[in-house]
C-alpha cells in the first residue's frame, strides 16, 4: 500500500462549490504539507502542519483552508472554488530531519482538480 | 530573496546519451538540496538528496548530482538515458531558516527520443 494517499484523484466541480481534498499517511510523520502545481511554476506551498495542533499558512493560502484531524490525516478545503484554482494538488509528509528541521518530503500521487 | 532556478524548461535527449539538468539556488544559510522526478500522471519521487559530506551524491535510477558551493549549483546527471527517464524533474531547497519548508524550482521537462 502507498505511504501517502490522496482522495479523490480527479475532481471536476463548478465555480462556487465547496471542495475537500483528503490526504492520509502511514509513514508516522508529524509534518504534513499541501502544495499546488501549475505548469511553469513548480510546486507552491498552500498550508503546512507540524503536528495536530499546529497549522500554518504557506505562500498561497488565500481561498483555502485545512484541517488536521489526526496525525495521519490532513484535509484541504476550497471554500468557494474558482477557475484559477484549477491545478494539480499534492500532499506531502516529512520527518523532523536533521539540523534546521529539514527532512525529506514524501509525496502523494496528486489530485487533479478542475473548476469550471 | 531565496530562490531556486532551473534554467532549462525543456530538454530533448537521445536514448543512450548523457543528461545534465541544471539547478542554481540563492540561499544564505546551509542548503539542503533535493532532486525529485515526476513521471506522467504520478506524484513526485525522490531521486537523491544532499545534506552534508561528499559533494557527489548518488541516487536511484543511475542518477547522481554534484553540489558546488562556489557556484551555488546542484546539477543532476545521468551517463546514459533510458526512454523511461522521460519525465519532469524538480530541484528543491530545504530551508533551515524556515522550519524545513521546501522551495522548488519550476521544473525541467525531459523528452527522450529513440
> What percent of residues of chain B adopt helix (DSSP H or I)?
under 10%
Largest sheet of chain A: 7 strands, mixed
Structural class by helix and strand composition of chain A: mainly beta
Q: Enumerate how many helices of chain A there are, as a single number.
A: 0
Mean pLDDT metric of chain B: 91
Radius of gyration of chain B: 14 Å
Describe the overall structure.
The complex is a heterodimer of chains A (116) and B (114). Chain A has no helices and 11 strands. Chain A has strands spanning 4-7, 10-13, 19-25, 31-38, 42-51, 54-57, 64-70, 73-78, 87-94, 105-107, 111-115. In chain A, the strands form 2 sheets. In chain A, strands 2, 4, 5, 6, 9, 10 and 11 form a 7-stranded mixed beta sheet that branches. Chain A has a 4-stranded antiparallel beta sheet with strand order 1-3-8-7, with no helix packed on it. Chain B is mostly beta strands. In chain B, a hairpin with a 5-residue loop joins strand 5 (32-38) and strand 6. The termini of chain B are far apart. Chain A binds chain B through residues 4, 31, 33, 40-45, 48, 50, 58, 90, 92, 94, 96-110, and chain B through 4, 9, 29-30, 32, 34, 36, 42-46, 49, 51, 90, 92, 94-97, 99-102, 104-107.
Describe the structure using short key phrases.
heterodimer, A: mainly beta, 4-stranded antiparallel beta sheet, 11 strands, B: 114 residues, 6-stranded mixed beta sheet
In a nutshell, what does this entry contain?
By secondary structure, chain A is mainly β.
Amino acid at each position: 500500500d502507498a505511504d501517502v494517499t490522496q482522495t479523490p484523484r480527479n475532481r471536476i466541480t463548478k465555480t462556487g462549490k465547496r471542495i475537500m481534498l483528503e490526504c492520509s499517511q502511514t509513514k508516522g510523520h508529524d509534518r504534513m504539507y499541501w502544495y499546488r502545481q501549475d505548469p511553469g511554476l513548480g510546486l507552491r506551498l498552500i498550508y503546512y502542519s507540524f503536528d495536530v495542533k499546529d497549522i500554518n499558512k504557506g505562500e498561497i493560502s488565500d481561498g483555502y483552508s485545512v484541517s488536521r484531524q489526526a496525525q495521519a490525516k490532513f484535509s484541504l478545503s476550497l471554500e468557494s472554488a474558482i477557475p484559477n484554482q484549477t491545478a494539480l494538488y499534492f500532499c506531502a509528509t516529512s520527518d523532523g530531519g536533521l539540523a534546521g528541521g529539514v527532512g525529506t518530503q514524501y509525496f502523494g500521487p496528486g489530485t487533479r482538480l478542475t473548476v469550471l | 530573496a531565496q530562490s531556486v532556478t532551473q534554467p532549462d524548461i525543456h530538454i530533448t535527449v537521445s536514448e543512450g546519451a548523457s543528461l545534465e539538468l541544471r539547478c542554481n539556488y540563492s540561499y544564505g544559510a546551509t542548503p539542503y538540496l533535493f532532486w525529485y522526478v515526476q513521471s506522467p500522471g504520478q506524484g513526485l519521487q525522490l531521486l537523491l538528496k544532499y545534506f552534508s559530506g561528499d559533494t557527489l551524491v548518488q541516487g536511484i535510477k543511475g542518477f547522481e548530482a554534484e553540489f558546488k558551493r562556489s557556484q551555488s549549483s546542484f546539477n543532476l546527471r545521468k551517463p546514459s538515458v533510458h526512454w523511461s527517464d522521460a519525465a519532469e524533474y524538480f530541484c528543491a531547497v530545504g530551508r533551515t531558516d524556515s522550519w524545513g519548508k521546501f522551495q522548488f524550482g519550476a521544473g525541467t521537462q525531459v523528452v527522450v527520443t529513440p
